[in-house]
Amino acid sequence: MIKLIITSFFTLLAAFSYSQQNVFITLSPKVASADLVIGTDVTNLNGIVFNLEYFDYYLSGLHIIHDGGQDLDLSDTVFLIEPTNFVLYLGYLNVTNIEQIQFAVGVPANLNTQDGLDAIDISVYPHGHPLGFQDPSMYWGWTSGYAHMIIGGLADSNSDGIPDALFQLHNLGNSNYLPYQMPVIQTQTNLSQIDVYINCNVDTWLKDIAIQSVGVLHGSANENADVMNNVITESVFNQGANAAVSNAESGVGTMTFSSVNSSLSISWKNIKNVGSFQLNDLSGKIIKLGSVSDETGCFIFDNISNGIYNFTFFDKNLNALNSIKVAM
Fold it and tell me: Are strands 216-219 and 179-183 parallel, antiparallel or unpaired?
């Protein structure tokens, strides 16, 4: 991941129409508006109880439409979205107001199969690359290419409320790589960070798919095509009513970050009444925590693994004062 140094820009914000900011897109997996938890019984739109073992998909062809229709083309990047890995760090960008995003679910044809102009053997990709080997596998050979989305688990086949029937939908084929666009409302999390929060509704993605009887389908036709088409015809991706609401008081001081190798630096200025801090990963696991009382300062954390983290300051009553999302 590219490491970028972020600086405060009070004066630049007033002087220029566009300012560089860290931009994140969060694609939270949901079922019935609640957070998806792998291995937990949930109910789909057809009233069928199911329990997921995995749910993974690729996102590519990304365009950020901003500031009066300008097109920030990020289409050369492929992202792998997983149940615990669904925040995209797009970089330190010259963007003020994001109006729309455009993308497709899956791997584009030029990278997908042996016929792709830019396709290479999967073994050439380094460990950890989205197009490298995955567990569960997202790749079905040089001829079939990558699965755009895979989902599997157990579904209730006899209406007793207990998931018992195995289902797998591993969805392939260049014909199922479909462009999608949606208007968005951004969150100005703080003066140097824009977040776009989007729900990925797994139950809607499975709408009208008979998961209780579909069995194991690895292919590009019938239900495999139907489930991919749901992205276009149904509200698989949408935003909540509070999409523009920041989780913390972004007007309380400023926070910035920089990262080099495994070292993370977090600086802050003019944050009053600070009592403690926490650095958490996206699952909520606490990576670092401690007490702090300085209104202005800097922390340096070493031996931090690559990923997306949340850093939050709290007052002495454990009320959140300000937070920042950081990328390693």
Answer: unpaired
pTM given for the model: 0.84
User: At residue 304, does pLDDT exceed 50?
Assistant: yes
CATH number, domain 254-327: 2.60.40.10
Question: What pLDDT, on the 0 to 100 scale, is given for residue 38?
Answer: 97
**Per-domain boundaries in the chain:** 18-238, 254-327
**Confidence at 327, pLDDT banded by 50, 70, 90:** confident
